Amino acid sequence: MKTTLNQPNFKILEMKKIQYISTIILLLTVIFSCKKSDTINPIPTTLIADESAFSTPARVANQINGLYATFKGTGLWGSNYVLYSEARAGEFISTNQNPLQGGLTYMMLTDPGTTDVNIVWLQAYQTINACNVFLDGMDASGKAVVGDSLYKNYTAEAKVLRAVTYYSLLQLYARPYKENAGKSPGLPLRLKGNTGLANYNLARSSVDSVYKQILVDLNYAENNLPAKYSTAALNTTRTHKNSAIAFKTRVYLSMGDYNNVILEGNKIVSTASPFVTTNTANASHSLPADITTVFKTPYTSTESIFSMPFASGDGPGNSMATNLLPNSTDGVGLGSAGTGQFYVFDKGIASDVNWKATDKRRNFIFTTASGTNKGRLWCAKFAVGTPYTDYIPVIRYAEVMLNLAEALTRVNGLDARARALLNAVRGRSDATTIFAPTDNVDLLNKIINERRIEFFGEGTRNADLMRLGLPVPAKTPTGSTPVPQTNTTDGNYIWPIPNNESLYNKLI
Question: Could you report the per-residue pLDDT of 23-59, keeping only the tens digit for each?
């Protein structure tokens, strides 16, 4: 009886393994050729075989669009990485705990088979492998085709995308850097491309090793990316020197390396107000007077260091707006609607008494005016209805300013420039509030709180909880099932390695 019962399960497992590896090979060996436009158009129009992908300058150039397309897939920076980060972090409430819409992530009940856990990992490693395949091909033959200058440009773009993808994975699947100085298990560090059947066994590198590779990629990128592009659209949707520098401030902050945050931040943030980029040869960045313009067409403000673009016919399959906007009943007067999967937790940052009603960022919160859910709050930062074409910011100038402010405070104490940076971010949206912290602890708390307000709904809060070693807060919605606090020592504090990795990687 035991043999009879187990044999079908074994066959199913093997069939799934073959099917999974076949799917991976199909997805990862294909290099997408995309329509070339002023912004990155991710719609694949041609599939290029591996052996001819580097045969002409046009084909090499088109592959860059394909890398961005994979990076902005729904499972990663097309929405799900951001959505699931927010679902965990305590500022939103799941309306129905739908397991297909982040419900298990919200309840902190994920396991290796959870869809959320698997889909982000799969999209991320597709992106990493696509970058690796491209980099291998450029070294083998692409450089001779496009020349040294474009070789450096294109490989630097691929390395930024690989670096940001690895960083994103660390925020969900690995322990924070501050634990054991990064000696905890991190991720399988894949740096060579797979284009066919191969030995996929690879143990996890340490958190520190993955961070070091991220920095190697970003340092290379800073030295080899273009200083800027010819249009605001390209400066927003393709990486340039300031993009690499900005990401380094984020990475060093997560590592607790505050001196290097200051070193990198000083490269692009002026010493005094008005805070703007200092190197005029590079792309220009500053804070627009009205933050709402950052989230409106054409999405190419001076604040937008790097964003994921979307257009009609090119919306993500599971967009931020779909999940965060109320349905048509709860959203009367909003002008657009979603499915209402997540509403704003009224006891979270939305309840902060120091976040004034006149603050322009309050425009991103919509209140249901009548009906059963009267008074319920919703995030309208991504406010475009079907086909849900809002750009998703990957990093903004405001973050670099607050990264720098925090680092200055941790190194220098009650730092005047840190206070000025904080007040610049707050003052852009609320000119009536001027912070006058009494000591470095007060200043630091105000900076962390300002991050919760400024990047509300953008996926930043979860990474902040991780790097600060804070518990994932309890969610206690009125009239709904509470979710208890998850402590840093709890097994569900981070996501497990998913089944779709352990299935074919026996060293994981």
Answer: 443 344 333 333 334 444 433 333 344 668 899 999 9
pLDDT in tens, 127-141: 999 999 999 999 999
> Which pTM does this prediction carry?
0.91
Please give the Cα distance from 485 to 472 (Å, whole number): 6
Rounded Cα distance, 400 and 269, in Å: 8
Return the structure tokens found at 101: 């819409």
Q: Phi and psi for 206 in degrees, rounded to 5?
A: -70, 160
- Report CA dihedral (462, 463, 464, 467) to the nearest 10 degrees: 130
Containing 394, the helix (H) or strand (E) segment is strand 392-396
SS3 content of the chain, % helix, strand, coil (to 5): 50, 10, 40
CA distances from 271 to 83, 148, 262, 264, 405 (A): 35, 36, 11, 13, 11
Taking only the tens place, the pLDDT of each residue in 58-103 is 999 999 999 999 999 999 999 999 999 999 999 999 999 989 889 9
Q: Which structural domains are found in the chain, ordered by start?
A: 17-177+204-225 (1.25.40.390)
